[in-house]
Amino acid sequence: MLSTIVLALLVSLTLYALKIYTQFARNLAAAKKSGIPYVIIPFYQLNRLYQLSQLFVVPIARKLPVSWTEIWFDLTLEWGWARRYEPFKRFGTDTFLTVSPERNQLYTADANVISQITTRKTDFPKPLEVYESIKIYGNNVVTSEGQVWRHHRKITSPPFSEKNNHLVWTETLEQCQAMVNGWFDGNTGKTESKTIYTLADDAMRLSLYVISRAGFGVRLQWPGTGGTHANGHVKNEEENNTSSVGNAQKHTMSYTDALGSLLHNILWVLIVPPFLLKHLPFQRTKESYTAFVEWGKYMNEMFQQKKATVLKGEEGDSMDLMVALVKGAGITKESSTGEKPPAQTLTDEEILGNAFVFILAGHETTANTLHFCLALLATNIAAQRHLQADLDEIFQGRPVNESEYEEVIPKLFASMAGAVLNEELRLLAPVVGVPKSTLKDSPQPLELGGKTCTVPADCYIAIITPAVHRNPNQWPTGPPANPQKPSHPLSNLDNDLEEFKPERWILDPDAKHAASMPDQEADTEASHLGVNTAADTSAALYRPPKGAYIPFSEGYRSCIGRRFAQVEILAVLALIFSLYSVELAVDAYASDEEVGKMNDQEKFEVWSKARDEVNRQMNEDMGAIITLQLRKGAIGLRFVKRGKERFNCNAR
Ligand code: HEM
Ligand SMILES: *[C@@H]1O[C@H](CO)[C@@H](O)[C@H](O)[C@H]1NC(C)=O
Ligand SMILES: *[C@@H]1O[C@H](CO)[C@@H](O)[C@H](O)[C@H]1NC(C)=O
Ligand SMILES: *[C@@H]1O[C@H](CO)[C@@H](O)[C@H](O)[C@H]1NC(C)=O
């Protein structure tokens, strides 16, 4: 009996080993034939077991001799963020394959390769299995490919118009003003705010409120601001039901809390199936489940309400996302002639799925960009002063919220404001690996350094954004600020690509006056899908070669909310820095009283300590789960009226 079991076990093990070996041999052969440099690693990066092993096995295995493990430890999970350009430099190639028994992978930081991959959308489709988990409310524009994707994209693109961007601008300014008032405890007469440690949360709230308004027509009110708005549906935090919705169900969480909690617990919600989530005995999972259900209810109510409005033909010219989804799905005004309405082309689930994915895609990304723009500007005083000088020239003393959007927005794009935005997204692009693939049985030719190579079939492709944006073969470089103290321990030690230097984008300081918007879309097939094939950045600024700067990805599957996000961030920069300066908090090193008595040299010393700590946080405490953000701690900042700065040391 026992011997039978042992035998069976041995046979299965042998068969398993044989299978692994055959797969490996096949993958290796494909890599050899490809003409692309390759390295062999034991695991496929997206294998769930391998990912779990990072928690338990890898820390132990790190104790093994370095020569055994060197290459594949360099390529552990999140290596794109942790190591950036360093592996590419060491391997001496901007594109390489990794071979493992399960699946081959291609990693690239090469602009030319990226251009090819992002333009040939049928040759290099999205690996849909990666997006499986964001279908929780239904299929959507992110989780689909081919004709289905085209259909979703076409329906979801109308709200991303200039008209709606104008709304993004006004709503951002209003909410941002409320945020600033909060920092000053409602007393903007004060010259200095307290030290703010809640910037990450504040930025999240701001971007959520803006997307709620511009995406869904729901206006949320900043906590602590009294009164009501003249138009829009106003809600405040405590409200448990959507007052805008006629058939409101009983809710156990406010809209903001539901969404906040959903996003906070998103990994649980994405990984654990709902029925399990509901019954797991943890506070966290219970809360995630409630948030998941509650937010679904809110979305559904909003959907039903918009549907009713559209059926009555009362939506006017409002074109928020929900209205666009309802209309795009074929729901139209009931015709008086009794004609049958066209069949609904998106299911109710798909409509909710898209609503969710827009919040998911647009919320954290924009919030983190805002958060880090402020933190980075606090570490680079010269750049901040340059930004303020540009804003003064653009606004000429007029309040930002009383200036013409059409007039100032192109100028902002072309000024230090645009440069700061571009540079922040170069350094800290929220999406650190843009996934693509080749299909089974479909190897693809690829031009690589002038010769034609072959990407193996069924290959997972990751475009490593942090490396692309720091590839010295594709970016003009200068010497590092301080060779003794490199900005990153491994990557780009001999140049300035790891540094926050918005000035690298400024070609002609006067160009902002004659600026037009970043290229507008020609009337192409792509433009009808809301695909922006135009450059990300203003023509007045430095234009990286195609494929070298991809914070919003490129080609057909590039970000639909690009301009939305850019306008929002430019509005925040304009509003804050036309009136205030942001300073690093030095509370950990000296009290306000001590700082008051310091001379310039002493101030510079405490300020430098604070700066070094922020730089450390930005290297070490960041994680790239879903989007790149600070995973622990907080960056402390203070806001002060312009002219009342405590630290003017020009630190570089
Ligand atoms: C700074 C802010 C943002 C950044 C850096 C960003 C970046 C990106 C990137 C890199 C992709 C491609 C992802 C992939 O291929 O897997 C993407 C796709 C997408 N983004 Fe954004 N995004 C931002 C803001 C927004 C906003 C505000 C919205 C909506 C309101 C949005 C909606 C989307 C959607 C729907 C897609 C999928 C498009 C498709 O597959 O056709 N994003 N974004
Ligand atoms: C909820 O909805 C009802 C009726 O629509 C409304 O009277 C009430 O003020 C709303 N808010 C709360 C917190 O119950
Ligand atoms: C909203 O619901 C929560 C949880 O049930 C409750 O504690 C709170 O008092 C409610 N707020 C209002 C205004 O009804
Ligand atoms: C601009 O902002 C100021 C300060 O919040 C406010 O008093 C003023 O009414 C705003 N103007 C417009 C046109 O919204």
Describe the structure.
This protein has 652 residues and is α/β, with parallel strands linked by helices. The chain has a domain at 2-138. 47% of the residues lie in helices and 8% in strands. It has helices spanning 2-34, 48-61, 66-74, 79-83, 86-91, 111-119, 146-156, 162-183, 199-216, 255-264, 266-271, 274-279, 283-311, 321-328, 348-379, 381-395, 405-414, 416-427, 465-468, 525-528, 562-579, 592-597, 600-620; strands at 38-40, 95-99, 105-108, 218-220, 233-235, 433-437, 444-448, 451-455, 460-464, 580-584, 622-623, 629-630, 637-641. It has a five-stranded mixed β-sheet with strand order 1-2-3-9-6. The protein has a two-stranded parallel ribbon with strand order 4-5. The protein has a two-stranded antiparallel sheet with strand order 7-8. A hairpin with a 5-residue loop joins strand 2 (95-99) and strand 3 (105-108). The model is unreliable at 227-247 (pLDDT under 50).
The tally of strands reads: 13
Give the spatial strand order of the biggest sheet.
1-2-3-9-6
Distance between the termini: 76 Å
Ligands, ions, cofactors: protoporphyrin IX containing FE, 2-acetamido-2-deoxy-beta-D-glucopyranose
If helices are DSSP runs of H or I spanning 4 or more residues, what is the number of helices? 23
Average pLDDT level: 86
Radius of gyration: 26 Å
Q: Uncertain runs with pLDDT below 50, 5 residues or more?
A: 227-247
Structural class: alpha/beta
Per DSSP, what share of the residues sits in E-state strands of 2 or more residues?
Answer: 5-15%
For the largest beta-sheet, the strand count, sense and barrel status come to:
5 strands, mixed
The amount of helix comes to: 40-55%
What is the approximate shape? globular
